[in-house]
Amino acid sequence: CVVSATYVPPPHSTTKPGFPVPMSTDNPGVRKAARFGVYRYNNSSNDLFLFKESQITKAMVQIVRGLKYMLHVEIRRTVCEKREHSNLDSCHFQKKKSLQQILRCYFEVWITPWLHKASVPTVVC
Hints:
Strand content: 35-45%
Largest sheet: 5 strands, antiparallel
Shape: elongated
Strand order of the largest sheet: 1-2-3-4-5
Distance between the termini: 25 Å
Number of domains: 1
Number of strands: 5
CATH class: Alpha Beta
Radius of gyration: 16 Å
CATH architecture: Roll
Structural class: mainly beta
Order of helices and strands: EHEEEE
């Protein structure tokens, strides 16, 4: 996976190298990082159904040995069962009230594009 963050501080900025900066929640890199967080959550949960991101409420990125994304993400239960190994893009959110579940999560996702490596050391929901 190749992820790009194009943040260039203005001249005379008080932003220091390595300092987290806000990112648009619509940024493709942010969205990809959120999906990595969701995959990690799904792999560690005992839920029968897969969850997927419904909203990214806050995103920050820090450039340190790659890109460290700090994300506040709302995830919701889908109709796809884990054993189906469905592509999350084709999974719809639960419509049945009794099966609906929404979680607010914080993910830290480290992406090292030149090594084609991503890790998710922090998942708190």
